[in-house]
């Protein structure tokens, strides 16, 4: 039979901090930065279940039932709670985004036929878990760049027909949103798949080469490769794959409507 996936979105607010008692203050500060201090976030949770359609109800599961089950857990352990102190799952674990995703799987897997848990910490960090050894960690970056889509081997008329407004003689630009997906196991001590500070350093060094640049002229790669978003993905993959262990895929939002993705494994 054909299985169907149902996803429900939830929201909650929590505080947390990252601090390992076996390390000194300075060691914790180097490892976790400002997150050693208690702070809070607005979280978004996506709970996905999967199953076959019930012949009697003609549903996989009543959405209201999913809502009631998840809200009960959120109310008890997460919403307006200090995760380090109020949630038993984090008695011996740091409440990283990765571990928060694992915690929802822990609390919900016996109550729902879970397919996926996706947790967003604000707008820039997220984790996805499907009950397997590995999970996905996601980080969002932004950069701004100008470009012009124009093939010198074609006439003006052909370029205008092919690229439309993007062939404008003086170019145009975008605020790009880049999502980086990394696959791996959660470190039992830190709760991370990857150290965010180290990841940011690697990615920002690469983005610096294209941020606030007119790609056609300012970046050597795009003097020979038209700066389509497809080629921007190729550019980033070439420079990040060898530096980021477990890099799974890259996704770029050129606009809210135009989204491009490339696998990195």
In short:
By secondary structure, the chain is an alpha+beta fold.
The number of distinct β-strands equals: 10
CATH class of the largest domain: Alpha Beta
Largest sheet: 10 strands, mixed
Write the CATH architecture name of the largest domain: 2-Layer Sandwich
Portion of residues in helices?
25-40%
Straight-line N-to-C gap = 31 Å
Question: What is the CATH topology assignment of the largest domain?
Answer: Tetrahydropterin Synthase, Chain A
- Mind telling me the CATH superfamily name of the largest domain? 6-pyruvoyl tetrahydropterin synthase/QueD
Q: What is the overall silhouette? A: globular
Query: Count of helices?
Result: 9
Structure class: alpha+beta
Share of β-strand residues? 25-35%
Description:
By secondary structure, the chain is an alpha+beta fold. The chain folds into two domains: 1-131, Tetrahydropterin Synthase, Chain A; 133-265, 6-pyruvoyl tetrahydropterin synthase/QueD (Tetrahydropterin Synthase, Chain A, 2-Layer Sandwich). Helix content is 30%, strand content 31%. Strands 1, 2, 3, 4, 5, 6, 7, 8, 9 and 10 form a ten-stranded mixed beta sheet that branches. The mean pLDDT is 96.
Which secondary structure elements does this structure contain, and how are they paired or packed?
Elements: E1 4-16, H1 25-32, E2 39-51, H2 63-77, E3 81-82, H3 83-86, H4 97-108, E4 114-121, E5 125-129, E6 135-147, H5 156-163, E7 172-184, H6 196-207, E8 213-214, H7 215-218, H8 221-224, H9 229-240, E9 247-253, E10 259-263
